[in-house]
Amino acid sequence: MGYYINEIKSTGNIAVDDTILIKGTPATAGSKMLENFNPLFSADVVERLEKSGYEISGKTNVGEFGLDLMGETSYFGATEVDGKLAGAAATLVKNGDIKAALNVDLNGAPRRAAAVAGVDFIKPTYGTVSRYGVIAAACSGEQIGVTAKDAESVKEILSVIAGHDSKDGTSLPAEKYDYEDVAVSRMKVAIVKELYDLASDEVKANIDKYSESLKALGVTVESVSLDCVKEAQTAWQILMSAETTNNLSRFDGVKYGYRTADYKNIDELYVKSRTEAFCFLTKATIIYGSDVLAKGKYESCYDKSLRIRRVVATKVKEIFASYDAILAPACANAEYKAYDIIDSFEKVFEESVFTAVPSITGSPAMVTKGVQLIADTYKDNVLLSIAKSVEGLEA
Amino acid sequence: MKYELVIGLETHVELSTDSKLFCSCGGHSSPKEPNDCVCPACCGMPGMLPVTNKHAIELAVKAGFMLNCKINQYTTFDKKSYYYPDLPASYQTTQWFNPICVDGSVEIGERTIGIKQIHLEEDAGKLVHDDATNTSFVDYNRTSVPLIEIVSRPDFRSSDEVIAYLKKLKSSLQFAGISECEEGAMRCDVNISVRPEGSEEFGVRAEIKNMSSLSEIKDAIEFEKVRHVDALERHTEILQQETRRWDDVKRRTFPMRNKETAADYRYFPDPNLMPIVIDDEWLEAIRASMPATAEEQSLRYTEMGIPEKEAMVLASDRKLSDTFDAVVALGRAPKSVASWILTECMGNMKRLELDELKIDSAKLSRIIELVDTNEITRPAGKKVLSAVFESDVDVDKYCEENGLNVKVDEGFILTTVQRVVAENPDAVANYKSGKTKAMQALFGLIMRELKGTGDPVVIRDLLQKELDK
Asked: pLDDT tens across B408-430, in order?
């Protein structure tokens, strides 16, 4: 598979995930289900970019509905570089083919892709960038973010796409965000011990290296404990799967998208269309998501996860009372190889421990130089400033 | 053994909003052709996000006020999942965890029916089956039109109580401008069981789905009562908790699904819709916008000089009072308007078997104006009104085409009377000799001359005077 599912303009400088709608250009979300789906309107972020004079280069390959590690479940084939898994958008940015890309961070895929490629990606504070026009899966945590080669470029594009949108009921009221640079020296950064310990040696070494750079800038780096990372991981898995199950139920073969060739009645139309068009990971997520919402399980699964979300948010806030940012791995390993899709559900769950805390709390998270920085909500500028300062050390 | 019926109702009512519940497509009265009134949002296309219609919230709160409910000032929307082609997103947005109104009541005669809750939700679309080609079509015009579901407590003990409640509900909702309650816009699920009289326990419940005609609801309840009592007394069947439907052709209910196969709707809070907080200020503004009650309205009418009894009749029916207010606003004398509505309009409603007054107030006003200014006679006015009721004719055009709008000049009537009397000396002589029937013959001749335009009372009066000379 190439990098694009649909290339629009070779002179364009911004690519968008194929889960983001552009009027008149097919949007597949990496699924056979939507192979011929032609949206009637554009996402708010696309309109903002075009209004500011940016040209869209095309729709980049994504894993089916963005549920996987970094695109390996795409119906159109995984994107691979040198025999290793790679994110399509992150690779285009790394190669300098485009200035930036917009990606939907649902369960950490663009964060992992950026970490592996060595480019920057920010998942901004939930509600600051409109989700209008995203083929939705997990509405309570997914967020459009920006991939670019450095923090300065991320900031440039983020400033364009962030701001209130009346078409999105969860959009926050501010019309625009300045992402003002803040002084990094004398900041305090916390390394979450529980996440650090779960990473491979190579990733640990990279965190150590980043930590040294921070210290060189005058930042205090300390190890802290966040004793709810596993709970956050499971709770996000439950919320994300339940919401995804519900959102994907609209793909039933009746109105648009894939419809099976042969069916005797409406039930067969549903079952065959969905069986034939969804990949294994999507099906596993739907089964899991249906189960946690079932009568008799709601209280102990979904409702409990909502309560865990509040507990995690409180515990993270406690860290941010003493620290400006958290430093953590974005994923367990420095590189990933293609694997058997039967293992995908467990594999993605395992990796999501690193990405779940910002997903479930709505806090901003930034991947830079292979590591992940997390800040308190609305403190996206702190992440951009830290990343920019460390990137400046080399220059 | 004597048995008593225990019935609870879930009543779905379409709200009178200009747009749908979560998008800007036209609301209840807009659609014309199938799928004329749809957008990517109410068609369930990916990428769209819901934005709540504030007016629907206000109407639901008004319904809560009408039915004496407590208003939940913190209310949320939830998703209810099931697959059916008339539900484009395969989930319905409803209120499962925090409904907008709770704990109300409705008085019907001596009885009080408890209201468990009122919640807001979106309607589904409509399937149209073509048996000839064995094809189904789907129309999404109705998809996402706002509904309220009014859930009663199991307080009904007879089908008559159910019908009285539904009639009361309909007039209250219409009165407050919450719903037009048009044909099919009010639908009921009837939960019914029987138990030995005096028992506190509930019997096995059947739910009859989606009923809209009052007579069918009554028939279905009566049918179910017999079925349940037969099952208990004569063991004709083992009752089980199930959903049934009424077949109006076969005049009986049929099972649809039982508890084991009941759907699991997997309710959960909609993450795209923030909880709605109705602060005190908003709540009071909604309360202030409630229409006057029938009592207040009636008082207002008596102050306008309408006799108390007539004022009460006018105030008791939203359509009557609306029409009255509109025609008075067009400049007609209140007393005159009251008389035309209560006598002539209601006469036509009875004759044409209409449940409610449906007349263009401008037309009624014009008729009253023509009569009150003697442009046409009152009988002529009645004739036009009947024509308006029957075929919605244009008032002035109709008068002209039927020769009704002759300026009725008393002088002209008098000359005609005098002329007819002079031309028929024999009839006059007969009358004077005591044959009173002769007067009727003369009256007929005059009416023919006047082509029915004069006021019969005035004509008779003038004729009498002329003959008595």
From this structure: 677 778 888 888 888 888 888 88
| Contact at CB, A170 and B271, closer than 8 angstroms | yes
| A236 in a structural domain | no
Confidence of residue B29 (pLDDT cuts 50, 70, 90): low
**Cβ–Cβ below 8 Å for B89 and A250:** yes
Q: Is the pTM of this model over 0.90?
A: no
Tokens of B238: 């083992």
Q: Tell me, yes or no, whether A19 lies in a domain.
A: yes
Most confident of A130-139, B200-209, B391-400, B419-428: A130-139
The reply to whether residue A293 touches residue B90, judged by beta carbons under 8 angstroms, is no
Residue A248 within any structural domain of the chain: no
Q: State yes or no: pLDDT of B316 exceeds 90.
A: no
Angle between helix B437-449 and B410-423 (nearest 10): 130
Q: Which residues of A touch B268 (CB under 8 A)?
A: 242-243, 246, 293, 298, 302
Nearest to A249 among B45, B48, B90 (CB): B90
- A332 within domain boundaries: yes
- Which positions in chain B touch A254 (Cβ < 8 Å)? 85, 88, 138
Q: Average model confidence (pLDDT) for chain B?
A: 89
Query: CA dihedral in degrees (A335, A340, A342, A343; nearest 10)?
Result: -30
Asked if B46 and A290 come within 8 Å (Cβ–Cβ), the reply is: no
User: Where do the domains of chain B lie, and which CATH numbers do they carry?
Assistant: 3-281 (no CATH), 292-401 (no CATH), 410-468 (1.10.10.410)
Interface check A264 vs B, CB under 8 A: no
- pLDDT tens column, B118-176: 999 999 999 999 889 888 899 999 999 999 999 999 999 999 999 999 998 988 898 88
Pairwise CA distance, residues B442 & A3, whole Å? 103
Crossing angle of helices B54-66/B159-175, nearest 10°? 130
Look at residue B317 and tell me whether its pLDDT is greater than 90: no
pLDDT tens for residues A316-328?
999 999 999 999 9
Residue of A nearest to B140 (CA): A255
Position B385 scores a pLDDT of 93
Please report the DSSP string for A97-163 in residue order. Answer: SSSEEEEEESSSHHHHHHHHHT-EEEEPPTTSB--TTB--S-TTT-EEEEEESSHHHHHHHHHHHBS
| Nearest residue to A240 via CA among A3, A87, A65 | A65
Q: Does the beta-carbon distance from B49 to A255 stay under 8 Å?
A: no
A270: closest CA of chain B, how far (Å) = 8
Is the pLDDT confidence value at A364 over 70? yes
CATH number at residue A8: 3.90.1300.10
Chain A: closest CA distance from residue B51 (Å): 6
Q: Quick check: B40 and A40 CB within 8 A?
A: yes
Rounded to 5 degrees, what angle do the CA atoms B136, B138, B11 make? 115
Rounded to an integer, the average pLDDT of B174-180 is 87
CB-nearest to A270 from B46, B47, B83 is: B83
Using pLDDT thresholds of 50, 70 and 90, give the confidence band for residue B452: low
Cβ contact B49–A132 (<8 Å) = yes
Domain that holds residue A70: 4-230+308-394
Phi, psi of A154, deg, nearest 5 = -60, -45
Q: Per the structure block, which two tokens stand in for A279?
A: 């990949």
Q: What's the pLDDT score for residue B260?
A: 65
Instruction: Please answer yes or no on whether B272 and A169 come within 8 Å at the CB atom.
Output: yes
Residues of B in contact with A29 (CB under 8 A): 46
Q: Pseudo-torsion of CA A88, A89, A93, A96, nearest 10°?
A: 60
Q: How many domains does chain A have?
A: 1
